[in-house]
Design a protein that fits this description.
mainly alpha; 9 helices; 2 strands; 2% strand
């Protein structure tokens, strides 16, 4: 929590470095717009959107972060070309929903990648019929899918990626002042996000590749052994061998998980920032 406070304090102090330019008359409008942006991001982004956090805790977190970020918005509005501050409008609220959704939906591909990788591994472990209730999505998900998502969340917390996301949200207030994101940019954003689903599929295959390759080799070896010696009950050995070797490889591959997840998270965060910047540029040209 101290790290969150450090990030927000740096943003606030940098924003109020020139107090004469801060337009405090538009604080209520700025607060409303920032609350919409942060709340949509919290509702969709990994770690923040987990059901393990009570709704009241999320609401308090959103209000606290928004209240601390209002000086950033006021400073950006005061330093703008017209210096008239932030105005509240229905179009501006929809633009804030779009910015928060770009962050949340882009980063949610990380959870989908982990879930798909867990499903692939669970199928190789013969765990395809073992399902649990996912607290995040409230649907039945495979056992290994839940395990992969929990491990991914642990990596996000340990590596401080949640704080990087919050810092990026703070920077977005400078790059895209509240109420200024053009809704016409959403069409181009959708065209970028949809093809990224295929990228998450290939990333899931990459994460599950060691276990997938090992279990396939076990199946081939057992099949050849059955051909060489038909008297041996090799069928009963297939599932235990696949499970034991797969779990051993999975444990061994955990060492590369932090680097893998950090790279994917950083890549998705860069994509979200570029999409927002391109949307603002397209709106400016329009």
């Amino acid at each position: 929590m101290n790290c969150y406070g450090t990030i927000l304090a740096e943003a606030v102090f940098s924003a109020i470095a020139e107090p004469a330019r801060v337009n405090w008359n538009s604080m209520a409008s700025a607060m409303a717009l920032v609350v919409v942006r942060v709340s949509v991001m919290v509702a969709l982004a990994p770690f923040f959107s987990g059901k393990s956090f009570p709704a009241r805790t999320k609401a308090a977190f959103v209000l606290l972060v928004s209240w601390l970020l209002v000086p950033v918005v006021a400073a950006a509005a005061g330093n703008g070309p017209n210096g008239q501050g932030v105005s509240l409008s229905f179009t501006g609220l929809l633009g804030e929903v779009a910015v928060g959704a770009i962050y949340g939906l882009t980063l949610s591909l990380l959870n989908e990648m982990l879930l798909l990788a867990g499903q692939i591994v669970g199928l190789q472990f013969s765990f395809s019929l073992v399902n649990l209730l996912d607290p995040a999505s409230e649907i039945q998900t495979p056992l290994m899918g839940d395990l992969f998502q929990l491990m991914g969340t642990l990596v996000i917390i340990t590596a401080g990626l949640d704080r990087i996301l919050l810092a990026s949200m703070v920077r977005s207030l400078r790059a895209v002042p509240p109420g200024s994101f053009p809704l016409s940019a959403m069409q181009g954003t959708a065209k970028v996000l949809v093809p990224m689903l295929s990228g998450s599929f290939f990333a899931a295959l990459e994460l599950a590749a060691p276990v997938l390759a090992a279990t396939v080799l076990v199946e081939i070896s057992v099949a050849l052994l059955g051909k060489i010696s038909p008297q041996l009950p090799v069928i009963s050995l297939t599932i235990p061998l696949k499970t034991l070797i797969g779990i051993a490889l999975l444990i061994g591959s955990l060492a590369v998980w932090p680097r893998f997840i950090e790279a994917r998270f950083s890549g998705l965060l860069d994509v979200a920032e570029k999409l927002i910047a391109q949307g603002v540029a397209a709106g400016g040209r329009g």
